[in-house]
Amino acid sequence: MKKLHYSILLLLISITQVKAQQLKVPLDTIIATNYSTTIKGKTIPYKVITGFQPVWDEMGKPIASLFYTYYKRSDIKNDEDRPLLISFNGGPGSASVWMHIAYTGPQILKIDEEGFPIQPYGIKENPNSVLDVTDIVFVNPVNTAYSRMIPDKEGKMPKKEMFFGVNADIQYLADWINTFISRNNRWRSPKYLIGESYGTTRVSGLALALQNRQWMYLNGVILVSPTQIGFKFAGPVEIANRLPYFTAAAWYHKMLPAALQSKDLLDILPESEEYAINELLPAIAQGGYLNPDKKEEVITKMSYYSGLSKKSIRQNNLDVAKSYFWKELLRDKEGYTIGRLDSRYKGMDIKETGISPDYNSELTSWLHAFTPAINYYISQHLHFKTDLKYNMFGPVSPWDRNKDNMSGENLRSAMAMNANLHTMIQSGYYDGATTYFNAKYIMKQLNINSKLTDRLSFKGYRSGHMMYLRNEDLVQANEDIREFIIKSSKNISQGSKY
Questions:
Q1: Is the pLDDT of residue 166 over 80?
Q2: Do 388 and 468 belong to one domain?
Q3: Are residues 11 and 143 in the same domain?
Q4: Is a pLDDT exceeding 90 seen at residue 172?
Q5: Which end of the chain is more exposed for a tag (fewer CB within 10 A), N or C?
Q6: HEC profile for the chain?
């Protein structure tokens, strides 16, 4: 990273968060730094603006202050055609750190080619960043990173219900985005939302909230490792949908029968998917009505596609929980567990017995690298100094999930009303938390009338929840975003029409 020059503008507006702590939460602060980087062999100069922007209540009083980092390419004189990508992570309660310093931003943390942490911790240039084609702002909701609620003059904090819930989260963030767009003169720019994990629920809801309440029309939404985004598929559907993920994880650990193991992953997954939907789903739905001979046939097939023994599947009565799979797959072979968010990772429990792992082996590994890297980067490269704790995961409980089933419907409605709105899904095959096949199922629900096919796309990667940690997927996933933005920006001058 070649530093060009450095400047700081600090608005002297801050208040005390809690008198006992004497920690100050900046209310409206800007720190600007200029750098350049190399992306796809070309030098890209850019400006970084990091700081705080307030959230106001209906009376115009500040009730929270959100920490954000805004990357703007500085050699673009006219930004009316320059896209803006607004980035959220999930949780709920997670900071935007993950995609910020591991995926789309111009700087990423130091990890090996497969995504495992290395020391000394730190950062390096990201030659795959999408900053060449879009400006990016990483937003941290309340209680994540340095974002905090703001007390009134009497020191009383706002009600948590104003922030911590599906609908509240969408409502105040839509208002915040409106302010950000106005302050930075980006109303003319093509706009995109990207969310990861719970962030996909957030951006799906924001797509319609921005359109209907802020009159802000988007060009694209990117769902990275999506949740169910409100589409409810419990019971037999949820159980059957696990199988293709089981197949992928078992293939990675070489636990499948030779007939499958000898083939490439992408050659066997369609076979497992077809069986899950067309045969396993109706068999599970029959429950006690399932013929005993047919049940044994299903158990044999599930074992074939999952790497689990027929005995363990029979003992679970076909309903094999993912947590049991993480504990069981390598139990007899190596005695290790496998990761929830990325099943390439192995863990070691105190006891090999049990029905679920003691801990998430992949998350423990990731926090090794991300926590020191983001604290170092913000302080030493972006020159933002504070005694506030950077919350990788902040306190946001209880989270109100009332009307949690609306986000996907909201995205579908936004796409129906806005012919320029496109959606792309990105998933890792080894993600056991938000599985790739559930993501495909979600896409089918979004396109239930088959009229959105040209504006929906799915991209799969040979890694887990944060598929961009594996270098090969980092390259491809960024390229997929780049192509998505370019494609969805075409013909927009012709207007939004069918």
A1: yes
A2: yes
A3: yes
A4: yes
A5: C
A6: CEEEEEEEECCCCEEEEECCCCEEEECCEEEEEEEEEEECCEEEEEEEEEEEEEEECCCCCEEEEEEEEEEEECCCCCCCCCCEEEEECCCCCECCHHHHCCCCCCEEECECCCCCECCCCCEEECCCCHHHCCEEEEECCCCCECCEECCCCCCCCCCHHHCCEHHHHHHHHHHHHHHHHHHCCCCCCCEEEEEECHHHHHHHHHHHHHHHHCCCCCCEEEEECCCCCCCCCCHHHHHHHHHHHHHHHHHHCCCCCHHHHCCCHHHHHHHHHHHHHHHHHHHHHHHHHCCHHHHHHHHHHHHHHHCCCHHHHHHCCCCCCHHHHHHHCCCCCCCCEECCCCCCCEECCCCCCCCCCCCCHHHHHHHHHHHHHHHHHHHHHCCCCCCCCCECECCCCCCECCCHHHHHHHHHHHHHHCCCCEEEEEEECCCCCCCHHHHHHHHHHHCCCCCCHHHEEEEEECCCCCHHHCHHHHHHHHHHHHHHHHHHHCCHHHCCCC
By C-alpha distance, which of 440, 477, 362 is closest to 116? Answer: 362
Residue 78 sits in which domain range? 2-230+374-494
How far apart, in Å, are the Cα atoms of 378 and each of 16, 68, 69, 122, 430?
22, 11, 9, 11, 31
Same domain? 105 vs 51: yes
Q: Which residue has the higher pLDDT, 214 or 493?
A: 214
Give me the CATH number covering residue 207: 3.40.50.1820
Instruction: Answer yes or no: is pLDDT of 21 > 70.
Output: no
Q: pLDDT (tens digit, 9 = 90+) per residue, 319-350? A: 999 999 999 999 999 999 999 999 999 999 99
pTM of the model: 0.93
What Cα–Cα distance (Å) separates residue 467 from each residue in 124, 365, 433? 18, 15, 13
Q: Nearest to residue 134, comparing CAs of 83, 81, 79?
A: 83
